[in-house]
Amino acid sequence: ESMGRLGVPEAGDKKKIVVDFSSPNIAKEMHVGHLRSTIIGDTLSNLLTFSGHDVLRLNHVGDWGTQFGMLVEHLRDEFPQALSKETAKDVELGDLVTLYKAA
User: Fold this and answer.
1) DSSP code of 52?
2) For the chain, first and last CA: distance in Å?
3) CA 66 – CA 70 distance, rounded (Å)
4) Has 14 been annotated as catalytic?
5) Which pLDDT score, from 0 to 100, does residue 45 have?
6) Catalytic residue among 14, 15, 16, 28
7) Band of the pLDDT at 27, cuts 50, 70, 90?
8) CA 42/CA 37 separation, integer angstroms
9) What is the DSSP letter of 54?
10) 79 — pLDDT class (breaks 50, 70, 90)
11) Cα–Cα nearest to 55, from 21, 19, 13
């Protein structure tokens, strides 16, 4: 059995471990920097699971309430067409990023 594990034994003292990772700000455009926490957290989770621990992966999108609220308020004032069902499809993510920075 150890051959399938590359000679690495399972942990003798198995534990329940929570790995909390990834918190990109969804009020901003995604970029490669957001992946760092996700990759590190996933890798640690894989290693701990391979070692025999019971791992709970807690992956969240972060606290975006304040940013989102600021964006909506700024949209109401400066770009109300973004909040209308009829004209929202004409709004691009880049427009929202510009507005987010201004808010």
Assistant:
1) T
2) 59
3) 6
4) no
5) 94
6) 28
7) low
8) 8
9) E
10) confident
11) 19
